[in-house]
Amino acid sequence: PEVVEAMSRLEMxxxxxxxxxxxxxxxxxxxxxxxxxxxxFRLGGEMLVxxxxxxxxxxxxxxxxxxxxxxxxxxxxTDGYRMRSYRAGQGWVDADxxxxxxxxxxxxxxxxxxxxxxADFSEPDRWMExxxxxxxxxxxxxxxxxxxxxxxxx
Length: 154
Hints:
By secondary structure, the chain is mainly beta. It has one helix spanning 2-7; strands at 15-26, 29-42, 47-58, 61-75, 80-87, 91-100, 103-110, 113-120, 126-135, 138-151. A hairpin with a 2-residue loop joins strand 3 (47-58) and strand 4 (61-75). The longest helix has 6 residues, at 2-7.
């Protein structure tokens, strides 16, 4: 019951979401993709699974440019949330999550530098996410995603 109650703080993520993601690939280089995210509770509410897929029209054909899967859990012993995420072709990473009302944050290390993601669910049925990377003591945004909930989770 304690775990399920803690996980219910992530209820705002549940559903099917669609929208766009813009990724900065370098100076004057951006990639815009169509994103579909699916989030649903599993194991009686003890785990939240999230799968995201980004596609782009490349040469008249939809191509997958991003595909990730994450499993979020709550650890009562540490009173904290953890996510193990997998990204196609890039392996997996573990991250601690901080849930602050409608804001969810997580950080991870990358070869390019520390990365922080912030997902904001302040607006009903809206998922706004940014990704920031730190280089040389400066933090810069490299990702902006704006999604709308199109269906509740099954």
